[in-house]
Design goal:
The complex is a heterodimer of chains A (about 600) and B (about 130). Chain A has about 600 residues and is mainly alpha-helical. Chain A contains 24 helices and one strand. Chain B is of the alpha+beta class and about 130 residues long. Chain B has four helices and four strands; from the N terminus they run βαβααββα. In chain B, strand 3 and strand 4 form a beta hairpin. Classes of the chains: A mainly alpha (about 600), B alpha+beta (about 130).
């Protein structure tokens, strides 16, 4: 089947989902009110709280949620065939991610634009806040571990990408300094930055850098592990320097790369008329993980990602001009992420092989599929770029640079966020050194994922990566489960039909728990005594989440009636004046985030 | 006709960092403490507040990140073309408008690479609006 036909069908389904399902959510579930005064207006300070045009806000929101994660998962999941992978991406985007991202934004707006961690404590109970902290701690640990492995594998497989990626760091710092010192346009320097970055691909292609010799001399069994250590050393430094020095300028470069990559995949598929060379449903070898439940864990970002609730409730909700804009910003953000995941599926099925037999050699078993997934995406995207007359060797490095750039930025921010979480835990546990000492907090934020990433695997590609990715998927789905629980309780308390929220919540928790149990048994049988306890801890968190959600929902069903919706967390004074809102459980406050804002 | 003032943001010392799923611009918590990276007042905020309080409701005032070129580029190109700019003149106008710390009214660049003082910004925009 031609890849562009699949892309067109997915596009139509996404359009229908937005047109009809998000409209139903807006009217019946979240009951968006054009007259509602949003926190952006209520607390308008020109800093965090700024009423923002929905198209401007969508640009911010989409570039905050789109990255490497929706590329990796789908490229692994086509192991079960492109049919199940694409079905989960489409159905997940329309019925789970759209509900989740849109809902997190809508609920946060009704609660002074508070973040999902705080909302969990307010809407469910105080224990849910600690649960959120624990889940987010493991999520960030696994994010940093898996992306270190992704980058390490790509550096080993594409030594030509080393020079462009390494030199992107001083390039970004220079661009940042130039923009801020000269106060010149960010557009031209960042476009020049992209051009220089791609020019460096030629240099990298001419002078590939391999650390095989050095790794052997230092006694490393896998070259990837040396890269992983170097990456974490770099990340430790990068997460300590101000965001405007490196992270913000690199974002300028990445924002261009995101649209360039999407354009290359879209145009390349149309121009090349590539045929999908993978089976619709793959006859996987005996002993492989079954696609129930593992498909729904392997593709997290791209079908539903809990991380989006942090973006939606953390920054986007503070800028929402009118409540109905939540539909466009939240739901369309999910659709954009689903589109990127669809591109990944096409690259890993239509771009990598000339025949089904060739494709079968790339995906013979789950270990090879998971270890080689990112490489397959890179090769597939390179093939699409080659359709646009870009030489294949350069196109391959281009695709690798795109993925590594996204993954490296995610690691930088992930370690920085993990430091905040560790400090928060330190404050809760009254451990002063954790709460106040940045060096200690950052070192812990780096050391734990570094240890995870170095767990021995069977091959250079690594059996370990596949299971690490699955554990990342489960924690990401648990984050989504927590956000959906908050949304479900909130909707139920208002006497509205919560089925649209409960279905993805129950489905996610069932798949996640099932996968954790299967993996726990496998880890114990394989004597994986690092992964087994980690899996067990995440399973306990999942059970805890199920119990908290059940208790809160049972209570909400008792309270919920259209006439008398209950508070369930403190809503703003403006929202209390709204028909939709009932009793508030808390008293008046001095601002959107308590006394800490100034 | 609705008018639109756009303020292009400059660097921010704190707040969001990189983009990308699982690494985007997020704030996990709202309360104070060592983890809380509350964004401090920046150069754009006082100008924004002055414009918002002085201008009528039918004038939109937007703060836009310089990375948000999918919004900025059409805004500046469209505004420039409406004012009769073409070719190099249009390119120069677009380049000026996307500079950090810029002030743009209906696609016309009033200040580039540095914002006027809040009162001056209000006077500048009001003077331009009175001509339209």
């Amino acid at each position: 089947m031609p890849a562009f036909v699949v892309a067109a069908v997915v596009g139509v389904l996404f359009f229908l989902g937005y047109r009809y399902y998000s409209s139903y959510l807006a009217r019946k579930v979240y009951a968006l009110d054009p007259a509602f005064v949003t926190p952006a207006h209520e607390f308008n300070d020109g800093v965090d709280f700024v009423p923002t045009n929905k198209h401007v806000l969508f640009g911010h929101h989409f570039t905050s949620v789109a990255g490497a994660a929706p590329i990796v998962g789908p490229a692994i999941a086509v192991f079960w065939g492109w049919g199940p992978a694409l079905a989960w991406i489409v159905l997940g985007t329309i019925f789970a991610a759209g509900v989740h991202d849109f809902g997190a934004l809508a609920v946060s707006v009704r609660h002074k634009a508070r973040s999902i961690g705080t909302l969990a404590g307010e809407v469910i109970n105080g224990r849910a806040r600690m649960l959120f902290l624990a889940i987010i701690f493991f999520l960030l640990t696994l994010v940093n571990a898996v992306f270190a492995v992704v980058i390490g594998n790509l550096f080993v497989a594409n030594p030509g990408a080393v020079i462009p990626i390494v030199l992107e760091i001083p390039l970004a710092i220079f661009i940042g300094a130039y923009i801020y010192r000269t106060r010149s346009s960010a557009l031209i320097p960042s476009i020049v930055g992209v051009i220089v970055l791609y020019a460096l691909i030629l240099v990298g292609n001419r002078f590939p850098i391999s650390l095989d010799g050095l790794a052997e001399a230092l006694g490393f069994e896998q070259t990837r592990n040396l890269w992983v250590i170097l990456l974490f050393v770099y990340t430790w430094i990068a997460s300590r320097i101000p965001v405007w020095v490196l992270l913000q300028p690199r974002d300028y470069i990445n924002s261009h790369q995101l649209f360039i990559a999407l354009g290359v995949i879209g145009l390349g598929v149309i121009v090349g008329m590539n045929q999908i060379q993978a089976p619709v449903i793959n006859d996987v070898p005996e002993g492989s993980p079954s696609f129930f439940p593992f498909l729904f864990i392997t593709i997290a970002c791209g079908a539903i990602s809990g991380f989006h609730s942090l973006v939606a409730s953390g920054t986007s909700s503070k800028q929402l001009d009118k409540e109905p804009d939540a539909r466009y910003v939240g739901y369309m953000g999910a659709v954009g992420e689903g589109s990127l995941a669809t591109g990944s599926v096409l690259a890993a099925t239509a771009g990598v092989a000339a025949s089904q037999a060739d494709w079968g050699e790339l995906y013979p078993d789950f270990a090879t599929a998971s270890g080689g997934a990112v490489g397959n995406f890179v090769r597939g995207t390179a093939e699409f770029a080659n359709n646009l007359a870009i030489p294949l060797d350069l196109a391959t490095i281009f695709a690798a640079v795109v993925v590594i750039s996204f993954a490296a930025t995610t690691m930088d921010t992930g370690v920085r966020l993990q430091r905040y979480v560790i400090q928060e835990i330190g404050e809760l546990l009254k451990i002063r050194v954790l709460a106040r000492n940045l060096t200690v907090a950052t070192t812990i934020a780096v050391a734990i994922p570094l240890g995870m990433a170095l767990i021995p695997g069977e091959t250079e590609a690594g059996y370990t990566f596949g299971v690490l990715w699955q554990l990342f998927g489960t924690t990401n789905q648990l984050t989504a489960g927590l956000a959906l629980s908050v949304i479900a309780v909130w909707v139920t308390r208002r006497g509205r039909n919560p089925v649209a929220v409960l279905v993805p919540l129950v489905f996610l928790l069932a798949m996640t728990s099932w996968a954790l149990i299967v993996n726990l048994r496998n880890f114990i049988e394989a004597d994986q005594w690092v992964l087994a306890p980690l899996d067990a801890i995440i399973f306990v968190l999942a059970m805890w989440l199920i119990v908290e959600a059940a208790i809160a929902l049972r209570k909400a069903f008792g309270e919920g009636s259209p006439a008398a919706p209950a508070g369930g967390g403190e809503e703003s004074a403006v929202s209390r004046a709204n028909d939709d809102v009932g009793r508030s459980t808390a008293g008046p406050t001095d601002g959107p985030t308590g006394s800490s804002r100034r | 006709m609705r008018h639109r003032v756009v303020l292009v943001r400059g660097p921010r010392a704190t707040g969001g960092g990189g983009g990308g799923c699982c690494g985007g611009d997020v704030r996990p918590f709202d309360e104070g403490g060592g983890h809380c990276h509350t964004v401090v007042d920046d150069e754009v905020a006082p100008v924004y507040r002055a414009l918002r309080s002085a201008l009528p409701a039918d004038v939109d005032v937007e703060i836009v990140s310089p990375t948000n070129w999918p919004f900025l580029l059409p805004e500046l190109v469209g505004g420039g073309r409406r004012r009769g700019l073409r070719g190099l003149a249009l390119a120069r106008s677009v380049r000026a408008g996307i500079a950090v710390s810029s002030l743009v009214l209906d696609g016309a660049v009033l200040a580039s690479g540095g914002l006027p003082a809040p009162d001056d910004a209000v006077a500048l925009v009001e003077a331009q609006l009175s001509l339209r």
